[in-house]
Structures are given as C-alpha cells and as structure tokens.
C-alpha cells in the first residue's frame, strides 16, 4: 500500500492528497528495483533460463544476464570468461589453449554442457517451481534470455527490464552486437528498467555513443567502486585502475552499479542523485529472511535505487514488509483506489506458491 502512496505523491493519481510524501528516497521516488543477479542464482544454477524464469515468478523487476562471446560469435549468458566454474565442461572436453575460455568454444559445444548449481544455497530444485522449458539448465544465448522476458511481458502485461552486462574486455564489436540484438528484440529504450552495464567506463561511454548512432535509448550503467575524493565523489574503474568523477559519469551514464563497500553511503547516493544518476548496489546475498531485512533496510533508507540480489524473493519480501510497516492508510483511500481499478496492477509482486 505504501507504494500506492508513493504513486500518489508523484502525481500518478489526480486525487493525490496534498502533502503525501514518497516512502522512498530513490531518484524517481519509486520502490527500489529488485535486480535478479545472474537470475535466481541463490536458488538455482546461475544464468540459466530456469533461474531467470523463477526470478520472474518471484516478482523481480529486472533480469541480469552477464554476457560473453562464443568462438562463433554468439552472445551467451555467462559470468566468467571460462566455462569451468559453472558447467560440466571439464568432464566432456579437454582444455583449449590451456583453459576453458568461452571464446574458444562454439555455441554447439557450449549447448552440450549442463550448468551446475554454485554457491552454498543453490540446487536444481526449488519448492513449488516447475520450469516450463524442456532443458532449463543449459547455457542460454542472449537471444533466448530476451525471448523469455519478452514473452513474460507479453503474457502478463508486465514491464520487466533486462540489465545485460558487457563483460570486459568488451570490444566495440561486442558492444555494437549487444545493442543491435537488443534493438531487434524491442529493447530499444521502450521497455522500463532496462540498462546496459559494464565495468569499463570507456566501454560505457562507447555504449552511450553507439546507442545514439543506432537510434535507441536504454539507460547506461557504469560499474565500479564508490570513492569519496574529498572535494567530490568518483567511481573506481578496476579495468584501468583509474577514477571517474561523478560529474564525468553523468555526461554519458544514467546509473551506477556499485559494490556495497568502499565509500558507498547515503551521502554518496545523494550526490549521485543530484547529478541525475541512479545507484544500484551489488551484491545482496542474505542467507535468512531476517538477515535480508537487516541487510536491505539501511540501503532502502539511504535512497538506493536498486538491489542486485541472488535472492529475488527475499528482496521482494523486504520491500513488502517495509511498505506494510509504514504510513497508516486513510480509511477512504482503499475505496478510492478500488474505484480506480488499479490495485491488481500495483500488487504485481507474488511469492511462488
Ligand atoms: O553487474 C553488477 C554485478 O553483477 C557485478 O558483479 O561480478 O556478479 O558481475 P558480477
Ligand atoms: Ca554482473
């Protein structure tokens, strides 16, 4: 219900009571985004269609695929530069060039692999969840990820975004391919909460320029580590060992994806907001529901705009609890909203049965 009051404060309803304040100190006053980090990677094998589908069912706002390029030029969802940590490649193939780099294997070879659960809490089973695809734990192509999210949006009327990461080193050709594939799948800037991210700040600047050239307008997010420079704030770019000032980032980026340490705090977030930059933190990995509350709450109150989390359900639950705990609703408000018929759409988050 508090999200409804936030909507009122933003003027989304003509009858908003005077003085109603947003519950959130986010850049747009809306609830922080729950970004499904590597899918539902705390529950199921990371970066798989099954994992993304579970995250959608849990009510994530955004699906995050990290992207690598195969030997035959296909973008696939994979965090690491090699196949070894997350798949059974070592059981099926000999190393190539001394390793199992994605870029040394064809898509057909990679499709023969199975993605295995990693981390302490993931498995191949989640209670009450039955993946709809025949083989849910293969390495998906970027195309398949977009197909899944687009089909979900078409079927439900939701506007779930995607947050592809061009893993570094990201070439001009790779950046162009990511954007062109997004545009041809309708992710041209018209799908809400869609970002393109990279750790390379020069790469982010290039992505912004390429979007203009191609004629699309997704948000661009630069990744890194928050720094208080004394006379301002910046973000450390670990790919070059340099620091980019927030003012420079605001020249080409719309948001920042930041590690939850270094100098990241409410003051940094407020400075980013002053420049029009949203702030999304990574990575939220609470092991229990209570740990989730304690981990998310300070960042909600600091005005963070989105949470990369392996546990989408816990992120959704924390926001619901936060909203339930806050401002009492005037007795007439539910009746007014029922008349507007908007409740069903606003209560879009649902737990998996
Ligand atoms: O992209 C934001 C966050 O995912 C960065 O961490 O290493 O999981 O890609 P990583
Ligand atoms: Ca990532």
Automatic annotation (TrEMBL):
Signal peptide: 1-20
Coiled-coil positions: none
Alphabetic keyword roster: Signal
Segments forming domain GP-PDE: 32-319
Protein origin, superkingdom: Bacteria
InterPro entries associated with the record: GP_PDE_dom, Ice-binding_C, PLC-like_Pdiesterase_TIM-brl, VPLPA-CTERM
Protein name: VPLPA-CTERM sorting domain-containing protein
Organism: Rhodovulum sulfidophilum
């Amino acid at each position: 219900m508090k999200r409804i009051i936030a909507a009122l404060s933003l003027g989304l309803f003509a009858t908003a009571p005077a003085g109603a304040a947003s519950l959130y100190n986010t850049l747009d006053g809306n609830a922080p985004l729950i970004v499904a980090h590597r899918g539902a990677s705390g529950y199921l094998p990371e970066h798989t269609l099954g994992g993304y589908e579970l995250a959608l069912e849990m009510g994530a706002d955004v699906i995050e695929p990290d992207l690598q390029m195969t030997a035959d030029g296909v973008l696939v969802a994979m965090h690491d530069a090699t196949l070894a940590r997350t798949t059974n490649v070592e059981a099926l193939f000999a190393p190539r060039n001394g390793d199992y780099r994605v870029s040394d294997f064809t898509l057909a070879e990679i499709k023969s692999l199975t993605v295995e659960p990693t981390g302490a809490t993931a498995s191949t089973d989640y209670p009450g969840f039955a993946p709809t695809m025949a083989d849910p734990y293969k390495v998906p192509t970027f195309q398949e990820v977009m197909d899944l999210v687009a089909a979900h949006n078409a079927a439900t009327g939701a506007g779930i975004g995607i947050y592809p990461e061009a893993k570094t080193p990201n070439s001009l050709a790779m950046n162009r391919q990511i954007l062109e594939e997004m545009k041809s799948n309708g992710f041209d800037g018209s799908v809400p909460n869609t970002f393109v991210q990279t750790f390379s700040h020069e790469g982010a600047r290039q992505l912004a320029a390429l979007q203009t050239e191609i004629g699309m307008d997704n948000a661009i997010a630069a990744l890194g580590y928050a720094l208080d420079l004394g006379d301002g704030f910046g973000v450390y770019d670990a790919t070059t060992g340099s620091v980019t000032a927030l003012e420079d980032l605001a020249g080409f980026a719309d948001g920042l994806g930041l590690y939850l340490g270094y100098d990241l705090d409410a003051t940094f977030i407020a400075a980013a907001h002053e420049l029009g930059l949203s702030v999304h933190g990574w990575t939220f990995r609470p092991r229990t529901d209570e740990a989730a509350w304690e981990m998310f709450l300070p960042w909600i109150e600091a005005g963070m705009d989105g949470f990369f989390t392996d546990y989408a359900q816990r992120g959704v639950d924390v926001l619901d609890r936060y909203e339930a705990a806050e401002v009492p609703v005037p007795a007439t408000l539910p009746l007014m909203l029922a008349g507007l018929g908007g409740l069903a759409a606003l209560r879009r988050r649902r737990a998996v049965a």
